[in-house]
Amino acid sequence: MPRPTATPFDWMQPRRNPGRPKIEAANRAAMYRAEIEERAALLGRLGLGRAQARTRLLANLGWDFPAAARPLSDADVDGILDRVFGQSPAGKNAPRGKGGPR
After folding, report:
1. pTM above threshold 0.85
2. Contact (CB, 8 A) for 36 and 75
3. Which residue range is the domain that position 65 belongs to?
4. Going by C-beta distance under 8 Å and a sequence separation of 6 or more, which residues neighbour residue 71?
5. Residue 100 to residue 31: CA distance in whole angstroms
6. Does 61 reside within a domain?
7. Is residue 13 part of a domain?
8. Which of 14, 31, 52, 58 has the largest count of CB atoms under 10 Å?
């Protein structure tokens, strides 16, 4: 009587971590966020204003991804720009800490 075929080694059977897709999605989101932060900082160093940098970053996201699959929303990009360029124009008159105008 023939034996059922079994794999000769246990390492030949793939063992996938069920949580891996969630981990990879989080890593991808962090990578996209870091890339947008780096691009925003570069555009700031090149002398572009916040509004110009926002337009350019959103255009880059629109070019790279279809509208339904964008990894970052407009609000995410605005938050990144707030960190890179300082607060948005609405918060421009807020009191500043050390080094502000006197």
Report:
1. no
2. no
3. 46-87
4. 28, 29, 32, 61, 65
5. 33
6. yes
7. no
8. 58
Q: Is the distance from CB of 36 to CB of 72 less than 8 angstroms?
A: yes
Give the pair of three-digit tokens for residue 27. 């890593």
Are residues 5 and 13 in contact, defined by beta-carbon separation less than 8 angstroms?
no
Per the structure, the count of domains in the chain is 1
DSSP characters over the chain: -PPPP--SSGGGS----TTHHHHHHHHHHHHHHHHHHHHHHHHHHTT--HHHHHHHHHHHHHHHS-GGG-SS-HHHHHHHHHHHH-S-GGGTTS---TT---
Q: Quick one: CA dihedral 70, 72, 78, 80, positive or negative?
A: negative
Closest CA to 33 of 86, 1, 68, 75: 75
Residue 64 belongs to some domain of the structure: yes
